[in-house]
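I had to read the description of the data format several times before I understood it. In essence, backbone conformation is discretised, so a fold becomes a row of integers matching the chain in length. I therefore recommend that a typical entry be quoted early in the introduction. For illustration, here is how one protein appears when written out as sequence plus structure tokens.

***
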Amino acid sequence: MRPVSFIANNQIDLLQSGAAYFPALIEAIDGASDEVYLETYIFAADATAMQVLQALKRAAARGVTVRVITDWLGTGREHTAFLKQEFHNTAISHRVFNPWFIRGVVRTHRKICVVDKSIAFVGGINIIDDMFTDDAKRLPLIAPRWDFSVRVSGPLVGRIHTELESQWVRMGKFKLLARWHVFKDTYQTHTKARVRTGRGPVLAGLVIRDNFRNRRTIQRAYMQALGHARNSALMTSPYFAPGRKLRQAMVSAAQRGVKVTLLLGVGHYSLQDAVTKSYYPKLLKAGIKIVEYRKTALHAKVAVIDAKWATVGSSNYDGLSLLVNQEANVVIRDAEFANVLRQRIEAGINDGVEIQPEKFINTPWRQRLYYGAAFFIYRFAMRVITMGNRK
């Protein structure tokens, strides 16, 4: 497995939900003097998203180069058209990822922003208000969506900027030779990052998933961390349907005596919940603790393993994130950061409902049949989407 390319001497700040994230993002954009790159799956039409839009407009009006990437499916066809019109009337450049599925089913599920090559944001938070669901219905939530991002300053920002800049160029119209130069520059950045690995605070690396050089990079990062785990693993995801290898890594860790806890989101999609529950019997049998978060929408994709390994990003533990979509996580090796994130996850666990193995075993057979049917539907769909390449 290719290791994560850690870079030393970074400042990483954890931002929980929109209440912390959007003020920090808007402040950074308002302070921009050179350029802003923003990539997001959802750019909504609510008041919070419009505040970000206005900040981008203000930056462009000051002469800052502003480039925005939105996903066609995540943002929606009609709102994508609205954004294109809004951006057209300014100096903001806007590119839409995979409109009308012309590149197949792949989506950009990444949430990244880089300002002046000095500040970066990476995580799971879309440009959408915390108090509404992130589906087409946009229903009100009883409490703010539970999600995280990180604000990064230091050498790692250069790596994140290169990735965003490369994504922008790849989405444009340019010749094969230009594409080769983008690939070469990105590869050289990876190599330099490995050379710059050090021991100073804070060690962090960008881990991306695409369908070219990084098909299983995020999954492998999790598997490596679980393989070296000795004490505990707290893992959080709104959608849970991992492949066999990642499931086995969780089970193996638990069987070695590692306290593995899964904090999972439920209640958004009933079919997804059924797929998730189809995995419970074997996980519970292995001694893995499963907690369902029901307080509000859980959208966080975070984990803390042992005392100092942590990750915050956009990748769920399901086939779409691990095998299809473009994703981005930051992996951090720092005890102080890991402890802060651990406390936030433990607070989420305290707000959740633990699945008791003895009660789950007594689930009515009709319900168990539904879980099994949902799993086979999901597995068939993933085999079609990935052309059978799901390991």
